[in-house]
Specification:
Helix content is about 45%, strand content about 15%. With about 400 residues, the protein is of the alpha/beta class.
Amino acid sequence: MSTEKLRKFFSGRRDLIARIRKACGSSDGIIWFHAASFGEFEEARPVIEETRRRFPEGKILLTFFSPSGYEPLKDYPAVDWVFYLPLDFPWNAGRFLDAVRPAKAIFTLGEYWEFLLGELRRRRIPTYITSVRIRPDSPYLKWYGWRYRHIYRTTYSAVMTQNETAAQLVREMGAPVVHNVGDARFDRVLEIASSPWTDPVLERWTAGRKVFVAGSTVSGGDDVMVTSLANARPEGKYLIVPHDPDPEQLGSIKSSLTVPYCLYSESEGIDTKDVPVMIVDRVGFLAKLYRYGFAAYVGAGFTTDCPHSVIEPAAYGLPVAVGPRYYQNPHFVELMQQGAGFSFGTPEELIAWYDSLTPERLSLLGGMAKSLCESGSGATSRIMDIIFG
């Protein structure tokens, strides 16, 4: 965590419980959602927004552990309040629940706060966890993961997993109520892809052409892959969207390009239609940007074993490429199995794939990608039925 993020992490928790008590103290029946950061929030978002649609007069609290979630979403309009989560100390758990008095608590993915969950259990507050994906090699299944197994056995009113493998593993831990519901992110990305949206800066730059989109790229491999492609095929158009567009990564991308480029933030009113590369130096709307693409490269496949969201471009019918480390991203594994996902370790391999993307092949691969997303839809309704009946 950067120094600036650490500063926000601690300053955002100053007098936190007092502020929560003041905001929530006069409300009853609060539905409390918690997500660690922005990525986990994206998994929870379809359920949060469906909760708002079903209960327009209800009160919803959203908490985050990390500044990466809180900062961009502190004014999120689908909920009544957004706060940081108090640190998980015994004296904080009771004070927080006294302030909120939630009717239900809904966690996302992998948030296991021992004291807070124990206090929820003691107060018999219905508590749920969604988007669980546990692999056979998970640390929760090792001898030292007994605390996590105890939480699964004793705390949740229901555990909702993304696949049957995870559901079976959670059942083996002893969790009494387990449902394989799928991934609500499919509902979210399909909704975004089907919603009309345009961007005037990109409309001028693309001039009606589809482009190659590199989304959530990370320094340490991704940027080199994409800039090498742009340098080798300057007749194309390339939209580069860094995962964290800080000055260091932006400088690295710009210095490695040998073709003209422009920054999104500096393109207003400028004639950019003949510029091959557009670098997006703002965050929060990548999922919408893929509509301008014909194919995509998704980052983090060099630095982690789980590239960022590959179903965001797939929902538009884009074939998807990632780096060589992808084994913990089940959606990409499915894309590969169906023939619409591709992994590359060198710029030369990526360039060869790019050259192979004829209109006929793009149509075939894109159909496979979109079909995967459509077949995965419906998790939001299943989750809502389990939580709210």
